[in-house]
Amino acid sequence: MADLLGSILNSMEKPPTVGDTESRRKAREQAARLKKMQEQEKRRKVEFRKQMEKEVCDFIQDSAQTKKKFLPMGKIERSILHDVVEVAGLTSFSFGDDEESRYVMIFKKEFAPSDEELEAYRKGEEWDPQKAGEKRKMKELAQKEAEEEALKGPLKVNPNTDYKDKYSHLIGKVAAKDAAHTLEANKAYGCVPVANKRDTRSIEEAMNEIRAKKRLKQSEDDGPGSSNS
């Protein structure tokens, strides 16, 4: 019986102390503040969404506007705006390098940005269709010229003058020097050029020379010391 009574008393919750009461009070206050903050955040999101819906609606109704740039906003706000834009059937993009400077731009479907326009916004530049058109034309012209050059084949280099003409004075000196070396070599080895062997006399001159030699020889034979006398 005593054991049963002891177990019952031990299972019963002990009366709260002063410290426990204070901790519970703080916990309840903290939970109440958290709930209040959550409700405030929820209402703020609802109000922000209503504001974005109004701005997007005004943008759609304004035929003069094709795009709209919003001020930088937080990640949650950007998410809400993107959702509103999608529901409205528009197109939206976020730009900006860091979180604090990121902003949203919305476009009407029929005026959706090109890749060149998006690239300009990503670089933080203003979009100028006229300059972009000129730049595109120059790029296409350069590409066309490159293709035409490729079709022509490898480039042929044609010098303005023949190298022999340009260096004729040097070539002449080298040729003369080589001829001099050849002549000296022929003399050293007893070689006579063919041109030197060629008889340049006429037939009549040659015959006269032969007759003169015969007469000289005959006169020598008929002289005082000849055995025929």
Question: How are the SSEs placed, and which strands pair?
Answer:
Elements: H1 2-11, H2 18-61, E1 67-69, H3 75-88, E2 91-95, E3 103-107, H4 115-122, H5 129-152, H6 163-166, H7 168-188, H8 194-197, H9 203-221
Antiparallel strand pairs: 1-3, 2-3
InterPro entries: R3H_dom, R3H_dom_sf, R3H_sperm-antigen, SPAG7
Organism: Geotrypetes seraphini
GO molecular function: nucleic acid binding
Task: Offer a concise description of the structure.
This protein has 229 residues and is mostly helical.
Give an overview in words:
- It comes from Geotrypetes seraphini.
- The chain has 229 residues and is mainly alpha-helical.
- Among the domains are: 26-127, R3H-like domain (Ribosomal Protein S8, Chain: A, domain 1), CATH 3.30.1370; 163-216, no CATH class.
- 65% of the residues lie in helices and 6% in strands.
- The chain contains nine helices and three strands, in the order ααβαββαααααα.
- Helix 2 crosses helix 3.
- The protein starts with a helix and ends in an 8-residue tail after the last helix.
- The mean pLDDT is 78.
List keywords for this structure.
3 strands; Ribosomal Protein S8, Chain: A, domain 1; 229 residues; 65% helix; mainly alpha; 9 helices; three-stranded antiparallel β-sheet; elongated; single chain
